[in-house]
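Incident log entry.

Two folding requests arrived from the same account within the same minute. Monitoring flagged them as a possible duplicate submission, but the sequences differ. Recording both here for audit purposes.

Request one:
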Amino acid sequence: MTAGTGRIFIVGLGPGNVDQLTPQAAMALAQATDLIGYAPYVARVEAGPDVVRHASDNRVEIERARHAVELALAGRSVAVVSGGDAGVFGMASAVFEAIDHGPAAWREVDVTVIPGVSAVLAAAARLGAPLGGDFCVISLSDNLKPREVVHRRLAAAARAGLVIALYNPRSKARPDQLGEAFDLLRTILPGTVPVAFARAIGRVDERVILTDITHADPEQVDMSTLVLIGCPLTHVITRADGEKWLYTSRRVDAPCA
């Protein structure tokens, strides 16, 4: 087979609720002969019995990407799946990295990236409008970058007055990293800055905890949680029933921090 006889769709599956899977993503998945991805994400996809599932561990992104290219070169229609949006700490960058460092023929493969609803957008919608101003998204994982770099970026974002969304906040292999991040941010941000823990948004086990940077407890967080840290322009609205909304002011009259 020559390059171009198959193709790759890089698909963001959304946060987990089927209602948050985009129609474009659903159409791409319906064309797939093969599914490639981290095992829990591959398991989420509804597909016919003829579709081949290639599930793998969560630390073999480049191997997955190479496998997808090889299948496409063999004439297969491959869906490489990620949770949320595949371009936000997902498989899109891994596929293009594999192509960039692979044989010249790999650059002829037909690749389409399908956007998805990222966890930060789902969490923000559930909370109100915490991303109404400038914000950033940072992964706390130090698998592919030094922890010192993570801390430097956190500090810079906090000093710049950005709302910060944290992906990969805490795992069994990294139980202390989120606590270290909070300790650092407490030296920069006012103690009343809102913090939200948004877990499994849109799924049956959804859980939302609102607190502040002073009282934020890392023990309430796992790898299914999106941690959102406001800035001094992030406000809390308490409703009559006790429920709360977060929003960040669009107007900046003075530095946030």
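Request two (distinct sequence, not a duplicate):
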Amino acid sequence: MMINDTLRKLNEMKLFGMAKGLQEQLSSTMTGPLSFEERLGLLVDQEVTWRENRRLQRLLQLAKLRENACVEDIDYRPGRGLERSEIASLALCNWIQHGHNLIITGPTGGGKTWLACALGNQACRHGLSVNFLRLPLLLEDLAVSHGDGSFRKRLQQLSKVDLLILDDFGMAALNAVGRNDLLEVIECRNGARSTLITSQLPVDRWHDYLSGGNPTVADAILDRLVSGSHRLELRGESMRKQRTKRLANA
């Protein structure tokens, strides 16, 4: 009865990891020879692990990553333009903690989105908040927010995310409103939060895409987004085509 009371109190205090660990100790003969201090240490470790796992699950749910990807599964085959040392450095997430940006470019099917999600997953594992958004859909949502008065609130939400992943940059034409909204998003994060961009367009063609007759806005966006950013340029055959070939030959 005393044990049941202890378990109840642990759950009431939301020490769910310790409660589960105590139940496991009671049903196992392995912990019998351990001292009180050792068993208590195990319970504390289990509580820490439980909380870390819960936080990771919450961060991944909020991130809404498009692909179930992780850095351990990155394909480094020759010709892709990926270096293990560079990815290992990015996987430390120091660039996010310092508010630097990352630009991933390459052809269709080259794995840009998958790689962005792998780095987003890694950021979540480091306890950082992530939000994955397709840029065309984000700009549509921001256009609607002008009408319902929620634009500033949405900008504030975006400004607080440690890593904002904007997928499919350059896929849809920009109008004047979208161009200005993109500048506002980049500006509210500049120097404080990191933005990861994926694009089929080479960076040297971004100014033409962004200008639309207003080179001043294009200059402002590029200065904040590209200056000092990390870059990954993927090359080689489409990963989708390679997967199709492997399945056909299997």
